Amino acid sequence: MDLVKLYNRQVSLPEWLEKMNHPLASKIRTEDNDKRPRMGILNKIIGLPYDKPVRMSAREIANNTFEFQKFLEEHGSELCALRLVPKEEGLPKFRNRGFTVANSVPWFFEQKIDPNKYIAEIVPHSESPIWSTIFVVNAHGIFGEIIKGGHNLLTQGFYDEVKPITFSYDWNDWKLSEENAEAVTELVNIAKYLFVKDLGKQQELTKELNVNLFNNYLGGYFETVSHDDTGLWFIDYNRILGDLYSNYICEAHKVSVQSDNKILIGQSGSGGSAIGKVVIISPNQITGTVIQAGDVLVCNMTSPDYLPLMQKAVAVITDLGGILSHAAIVCRELKKPAVVGTKNATQVLKDGDLVEVDGDNGTVRII
């Protein structure tokens, strides 16, 4: 499988949710568009480190203003992520990543947007990520995943040899799916920025952002990445996703044990259980493939192209992915049991196998 090609077809979580007509898709998109100004407020109040962008009107780039020319002279050779954020509801968001500022300008014009209707965010980008995380803070604790490498490995679910480590924190102890002292150090460092004991700051956060706090920790959905050269950045903070996951609990220390060769072990991508016949579908088989209601979709990893099949399937099983990857979130919103990160489901299972998918425990049993 060409994972690079498949990853290039990935879209943001709001776009996933829009494709499935999720009732909160519009609000989640707005929340996503405004995330960096919101993190800027957190930076001001509690010192939260984030990938602070240079914001300007898209018109400044389109007109090649003197100010933009000066910015290019000073920063044109720096790597960035260029986000074109709409000012009006309903317009699409555009973004690229990993190009220099100067090389992002031709891409800007290729999008053929109305520059009067967009804000340009030039976000710093580093090619030396050490750790990335994706997690939720709610009344029960802190739950998520951490991985060596870029955050796209977690959000999109495509990774190679290094797999995500699941973690949980119950306000007393950190529990990880595997022992890793460096990962614990990273998590402790991240959590300290979300711990707000000062009552005055809590009141200011509530007034400015209408936040939730749990055991003095800022609640919500978060993504972070740390680098050799720039240190730790928070790159996403979403209150609505935090509310969707207000009752989410992941027992990171709970490991399923394989009792016989008829069981596949993965992770819980979405809870529930289902029984159905396996249909293995590779990316080049999606177009024209007919899946029957009640079939179990099995694939290396889902992309947006799989969404119609996911909607019809009774359950989903993947080789890759993690507990908070976009695909896992989509399965939860579809109320479909999903077992992710099995490593080899597409090799072990065969078309027509009758299987029981246990999304609560992350196991698949061949019946």
From TrEMBL:
Pfam families: PEP-utilizers (PF00391). InterPro entries: PEP-util_enz_mobile_dom, PEP_synth, Phosphohistidine_dom_sf. Residues 292-362 form the PEP-utilising enzyme mobile domain. GO terms for molecular function: ATP binding; pyruvate, water dikinase activity. Keywords: ATP-binding, Nucleotide-binding. The keyword ATP-binding applies. Belongs to the PEP-utilizing enzyme family. This is PEP-utilising enzyme mobile domain-containing protein.
